[in-house]
Amino acid sequence: MFGNKSIKVKGADCGFDAFFLAIITSIGGFLFGYDIGQISGVLLYNDFNYRFLWGGTATVKSLLVSFMGVGCLFGSLIGAYTSDFLGRRKSIALGVAVYIVGDIVQATAKESWIHITTGRFVSGLGMGNLSVGVPMFQAECAPREIRGAVVASYQLLITIGILFGNIVCYNMRGLQNDSYSWRIIIGMGAVFSLPLGLGILFVPESPRWLAGRDK
What is the value of pTM for the model shown? Predict the structure, then answer.
């Protein structure tokens, strides 16, 4: 994408493509963190409570929050196979698509906690896929001089995503009586995932995956 443009890192040439790959793929970690941060704030919004937590039971709250993790469990198991079958790039793009579908399901929920919990499960499937595909792709593609920093960036972006999700919820708390407040917060996750879903198509495929298929 950037041709032969590169900079020196530890005495070796690291192409701009490698840095572009690191920036794009790290968004996967940001999405994970953002969901953790935003759901903790959205649960306190008046309109959200009125629509989905009217019973006020701890069971409903725990299911609503935890089904994202349940989806991640199955998504990570599936992602191990899609990464080998489709290739790293297409598998990550698929994970983003599933994540967006899950966010749409959540944002369109009206009064059923099962509806929004189902959306969180679907988002979890996509996120679980990314949690496998992104670090794998980073480790296989990044030059060894920056490989540790690139893979670590996934975890770093998770923490930044948590912080950002809480900041967004804090700043929109004045609109918590309106349904569009939490819908916007959830929908922002889908918007943030687009650079990853589209950008991953402009980076090279994993050389390890290509070599495994005699390419």
Answer: 0.88
